[in-house]
Structures are given as structure tokens and as C-alpha cells.
Amino acid sequence: MSCGVDVASHRHAVEFADGVHWIGALDPTLRTFDIILSTANGTTYNSYLVRGSEGVAVIDTVKENCSEEFFARLESQVDYSDITVIVLNHLEPDHTGALPELMRRAPQAQLYISQRATSMLKALLKPMGGDFDYTTVMTNDTVSLGNRTLRFLHTPFLHWPDTQCTYLEEEGVLFSGDVFGCHYCDKRLFNDLVGDFRFSFDYYYAHIMRPFKPHVLEALKLIEPLQLRQIAPTHGPILRERPRRYVTHYRELSTSSLTREIGGDQQSLVVFYMSSYGNTARMAEEITAGADDVEGVRVSLYDLEGGETDPFINLIEEADALLFGSPTINGDAVKPVWEILSSLAVVSLKGKIGGAFGSYGWSGEAVRMIEDRMRGLKMHIPFEGVRVKLIPTEEELQECREFGQQIAQRLTGKSPAKAVIDFADL
Q1: Which domains does the chain carry?
Q2: Would the pTM of this model clear 0.85, i.e. be above it?
Q3: Which of 150-154, 232-236, 347-351 has the lowest mean pLDDT?
Q4: Are 252 and 205 in contact (CB under 8 A)?
Q5: How far apart are CA 36 and CA 15, in angstroms?
Q6: What is the C-alpha to C-alpha distance for residues 104 and 96, in angstroms, rounded to an integer?
Q7: Which of 137, 180, 183, 140 is nearest to 162 (CA)?
Q8: Do the Cβ atoms of 156 and 217 come closer than 8 Å?
Q9: Beta bridge partners of 111
Q10: CA distance 338 to 57
Q11: Which residue from 271, 370, 287 is spatially nearest to 322, judged by alpha carbons?
């Protein structure tokens, strides 16, 4: 089965460095990837062939239903008996769908994967009976093709635990896996020839790499010193013109702009709320005032009724602590609060301080439900949230001020012992 193109008219590999060919597949009609990503321009499944004086390497394969196109391009360059090395930078099915058949056709080839990929490989090759040989590699391990050297870079969680990059030393080509990729299909293949794919590049980063920013920064430490002539990702255009600007852009996307704004010695606390009759709003204002009394904390207050969810994501990602206020309506928190909480899968929240508050009329479940959701996102909930029945009294507003102060003091290291057990710590 082909993946949206006439294979008979697309049999040729494309050379982009000496002895280095693209042998991937085009999927221009794909409109949704992995359920959650929109792909207005389809995507590519990029596979590469490297010819050396003492062997041939295939780097990554393609989605299974695109195998026919992949094998046609591969066969246009080499016999299967020439293949000595198969490298998998990432074992997700869109890069390994053709692997079982490739191993059947080239049984002499040695398979190279990261050390963290072994369990996934065994599951992937179950149909072959589990009888296969492979070599695991880490950063700076190499494999020789005679006059060509492939060097491996361990780049975990970009975006699976198994991911790595492979660097062709003599040609300065980085086979980067999903890093620096995007879902953008254009048969012209190269960044200096295809249409404007900047939106697709940033959209891909936001949904695939953004949750793993610390890992991106660690990977950049390995990538930035390389002599980069071209970057060859597993999706989207091959970056042959000014490839280093994409590396620089990744660093910009992965670096907090808030730190540059407020300085590294200040902590950021963001308070979101939604209010039906103004009671939760009064609580939010007092909590903000209490936190603002603590030196070294920048406090921001946002009414969710007055804004869309998406613009808040950057604020949330860069904040050190997050508080959510909601009234209880029909035994639940209000929809805008759930919408913003459900959107947070694209950012890393582990270790951030969280808390909840709100006014209620009858049962008051919203605060505890918000806290449970925040714990599920691996946030720390050091203090029990504040609940007020209907209109807050002066004493209850004072409790709100103290709650804000406690959160701010925890941020600055001035807080007493925790008031509640935080299961994220266990």
C-alpha cells in the first residue's frame, strides 16, 4: 500500500551530499498525525542512505504503508547485500514501519539503536520471533563505513526515551531524528526550495518538543559544537541552507524569556480565577495581595473570563507557582479552568508549586478537584486550598491573604513545614 503518491513515478533517491541520499516517502494527503497534530501540508517520513568504501548504512525507515515507496528508492541505489548498517534514531512506528521487511531483505546488516531502545525494539520485532542481533550505542560511540564515520549522540526524551541523533563526520550531516523536524510535505525536499514552513516548524516544536525543554537544552550542548553543513530530520525539509539558524531557534524556543524580564533572583506566581458573583474574584485579589507582600516574588493575576486559553500557556510554563480559583457549579469546577488545565500536557509542570481556592454555595468540590488534577500533572500542592461558602467574611479574606503569603514564602524558601502531604513527593 502506498501513502498518497504514485510510486512508479517516484522511484528515485535524491542525493544531497557525496554518497548521501534521501530514500524516504511523501505523505501529502495526511491531515492528522497521532490524533492530536494537524498536518495541513501532510508530512514526509525521511529515511537516508549513506554509502562508504566498506559498506552502506540505512538511517531510519518509514511508516509501514509507505514501505513500497521506500524500498523503490532504496533499490535505485544499492543491492540489499550491500547494506552493512541499519541505524534507528527513534523507534516510533512512523520511522520503523519498514524495518522488519528491511531486516528480512538484508539479514547481514547490523542494527544500531540507543541503549534505552531495547525493550521497544523487542516489541517491534515480535513478528520475527525475537531472534535478531543489535548493538546499543551511547554518545560518541561510532561505526565505520570505511571512509565514512557515523557518530552517535544520546538525546533522550526528544521526544521518546530512546531518541538519539547520528552525525556523519566527514560530510557534516546531522541525522537528527524528530529534532528540527516538522510535518510539512513538499516534493522539493530542501528548506531553500520548499514553501514557507516556519509555522509548521514552530507548531511541531510546540506540540512535540516543548514539554521536554530541559532535554532540548541538554541535546543542544552536544549539537552546537558540531560542524553542521546540513541537518536531515525524520520529518519535513532537509535543512541545507543556514542549518545553524534552526539550532539557534531551538535554543531561543527553549529558553525562558521571563528570566530575562524579571531577573533570575525573582520567582513568578500566576493566579488564575473565574468568578460567578464576584466572591472568588475577591478571594483572588486578597491572595494576590498577600503574595505580593513577600519580597522576591512577582505576582500576576488573570481573570479567565477575559481571555483565551492559548496565550496563557507561555505564562504557565515560565511561572514557578500557579494558583487556580473557581466557584463550584453543579459539583464541579467551571469549564474555563478545566480547559486551561487540560491544555497543559504540552508543557512541563513537574516541580512547580500549585494551589486552588474558590467560593461555593452547597458542596464545594471544585477546589479539591483542581488540586487532584494538579497533582496528576506532578505539581506540588504544599498547602490545603481555601474554600469559602458564598460571600467571604473579613476573617476569611484574611485567610486568603495568609494563603497567598504562604505560597510566596514557599517559593522564596521562607515557608514553615508543609501543611499537607503532597503525593508528588512520595
Answers
A1: 7-255 (3.60.15.10), 261-425 (3.40.50.360)
A2: no
A3: 347-351
A4: no
A5: 33
A6: 14
A7: 137
A8: no
A9: 86, 134
A10: 48
A11: 271
